[in-house]
Amino acid sequence: xxxxxxxxxxxxxxxxxxxxxxxxxxxxxxxxxxxxxxxxxxxxxxxxxxxxxxxxxxxxxxxxxxxxxxxxxxxxxxxxxxxxxxxxxxxxxxxxxxxxxxxxxxxxxxxxxxxxxxxxxxxxxxxxxxxxxxxxxxxxxxxxxxxxxxxxxxxxxxxxxxxxxxxxxxxxxxxxxxxxxxxxxxxxxxxxxxxxxxxxxxxxxxxxxxxxxxxxxxxxxxxxxxxxxxxxxxxxxxxxxxxxxxxxxxxxxxxxxxxxxxxxxxxxxxxxxxxxxxxxxxxxxxxxxxxxxxxxxxxxxxxxxxxxxxxxxxxxxxxxxxxxxxxxxxxxxxxxxxxxxxxxxxxxxxxxxxxxxxxxxxxxxxxxxxxxxxxxxxxxxxxxxxxxxxxxxxxxxxxxxxxxxxxxxxxxxxxxxxxxxxxxxxxxxxxxxxxxxxxxxxxxxxxxxxxxxxxxxxxxxxxxxxxxxxxxxxxxxxxxxxxxxxxxxxxxxxxxxxxxxxxxxxxxxxxxxxxxxxxxxxxxxxxxxxxxxxxxxxxxxx
Length: 542
What we know:
By secondary structure, the protein is an alpha/beta fold. The strands form four sheets. A six-stranded parallel beta sheet has the order 3-2-4-5-7-6, with helices on both faces. Strands 11-10-9-12-13-14 form a six-stranded parallel beta sheet. The chain has a six-stranded parallel beta sheet with strand order 16-15-17-18-20-19, with helices on both faces.
């Protein structure tokens, strides 16, 4: 016999859970006591939304579901943005929330919200645990659903009386689930289309960045020799140092990389997920598209592939390469455009202007972050510049959200990355607007004794919307704000704060922060006038 909370924690240990991101409430006290006696590390956060972002990022980086825990009502509702973040971003996560006793109602309806119903459209599965003996089964199913393709969040609600009940139940051991491979006929059809292309191109989408796919993808690209580009969330799936890399589609059209996209007559789309902002706008007069993924394509107005290879991505890539290697005389037809595209992206990267330009920020960050270092972006104008200009050679080393595109996730994501990879350099890049949405997690980072650098780009405005406002011809109105003294703010948490005063200080300040260790906040003024010059005027003249 064991309490429901003990069964829950034992089931989590059975799944290999190492840490839980949490803000517990009184409905979780039995679970908290069971965790105290377990091997699982409890990471106490300062906001439930941040706990969810950390759990989702844990899932994104490891492929194993991250776990977060909150109380009922307001605590559980604070997870909704994190649930949507994981749902759209295909990040495996298990959310456990408390609830009042379901067999008595001594507090009537106090704090009670139907969280299961609230979570259902935001998750792959949401259910209330109504009996302690069902806990091992439901936990095993939750992790199975969260981690299978397409990955995402699952919600379990554990009422306090069920957590306190005693029951007998056996744990269920996880097992490996193999993906089926595509039928030979599907691979043969795609082979004929690709072999007949005069200007083929490969696109790597969000699902190409799954941790297990780095080697099969890199091997495929080397074997077939077709140049490739990636979506924002597909960065790093194949090293950008490859001589076949053509760029990143940070915009949907009229960027430099679209010179190659527009000239292609066939695009092999690997792992594209249409939750991402479209990397190109597919039309009936454009290139043919072959979709290769673990799941079938979602047909949209701007994405409707003419052929699909569905199943185990690694195995299907190998089978496709076996048919195509050495048989593509036109494989490199578009490669002549590469040098010009990358040269244009590198323009003004070292310009000595202050406040800093976005190009200079990206350039200097790249200089201080090693190839396996991780940059976690919040959501703001700088995300487009990092997507276009930041070169990656290791998968999942530029963490950005091009699905929900929520503000406030950058710092929590960086904290999760630090916990998973304590031996790597980790940098959070936030705008001043997004940083303040979860800035309290600085205390979490300090308490955990992490080595983390937080870069806050300061323009005293919600910069991306302000750029759109200007580009659409509206007056500058309603998007400007003031900021605290960020240096003093960081110091008040026990972190170390510093402010960039000129261009030459920037990279040196970042390097010094990493070398010293601990939690550092570096605030850098940024000049976003380049948004209009490049992203509006220059590219619109292409």
